[in-house]
Amino acid sequence: MQVVGSDVTAVETVADGEADVTGTTVGAGTVPRIGRAEDVELLVRRSARPYVLGYNTRRAYLDNPRFRNTLARLVDERFLGQHVLDGYARPAVGPLQGTEWYPADLEWDGGNPVVPFFGRDGEVTVDAVREAFRDAGYQYEDGTLVGGGR
């Protein structure tokens, strides 16, 4: 076993026979190299580390749950998993996804059941977003979102 400095070096080290296995995590962009290399196998396991989007609720506007809810609906988790993380991620509403303790009403069924994305295939529906911010008590001046919602 050998630890090396980059995922590309890890693949090359194993492919060249200099190591049987490396302890270096490889990124999604390196996976095709592994597929093209002879006698090299990619071992995949589910990461225990989720990507989490959080907010500093002590900051202005972010202390408003209606504002945070609208912001959350600007993220297309499915699109990110497929296109940004090259299909090596599955969207989830909570950290217990895949366990017996995960509530059935939070199961991903084509979209986020709590904060559904404002759009489709990574493209935001601007009119829906503007309406949601207005419903949360915010307003627009010359096309720019301004205060309110308190």
Describe this protein's structure.
The chain has a two-stranded antiparallel ribbon with strand order 1-2. It has a two-stranded antiparallel ribbon with strand order 3-4. It has helices spanning 7-15, 31-36, 65-72, 77-84, 126-135; strands spanning 119-120, 123-124, 138-141, 144-148. It folds into two domains: 1-45, no CATH class; 65-148, Roll (Dipeptide-binding Protein, domain 3). The mean pLDDT is 85. It is an alpha+beta fold and 150 residues long. It is built from five helices and four strands. Residues 2-144 form the Solute-binding protein family domain.
SSE layout:
Layout: H1 7-15, H2 31-36, H3 65-72, H4 77-84, E1 119-120, E2 123-124, H5 126-135, E3 138-141, E4 144-148
Antiparallel strand pairs: 1-2, 3-4
Protein name: ABC-type oligopeptide transport system, periplasmic component
Domain Solute-binding protein family: 2-144
Task: Write a brief structural summary.
This protein is α+β, with helices and mostly antiparallel strands. It is built from five helices and four strands; from the N terminus they run ααααββαββ. Strands 1-2 form a two-stranded antiparallel sheet.
